[in-house]
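Example 4.3 (complexes with small molecules)
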Amino acid sequence: MDSANPTGNGRHASGKAMPRCPLRPGDPCSLCVPGATGPHDCQTVRLVMEDPDLREMLREKQAAYRASTAA
Ligand code: SF4
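Answer. The structure with iron/sulfur cluster bound is encoded below.
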């Protein structure tokens, strides 16, 4: 069990389903950005998606993650 998933069952301690963080492939959203209630209103996700260079870096990171988890 880790601090991002305190209940270990894919849910926040509140019982709400825990979506994945788009910026950290494989990790659940830990609500690390103040004010965010999930990836849908996370300002960091918004900033990354609005910047072409950061978006490209994210694509590379996601591809590396997929390659590392491929069977
Ligand atoms: S708050 Fe944003 S950056 Fe933090 S884990 Fe959730 S989606 Fe990712």
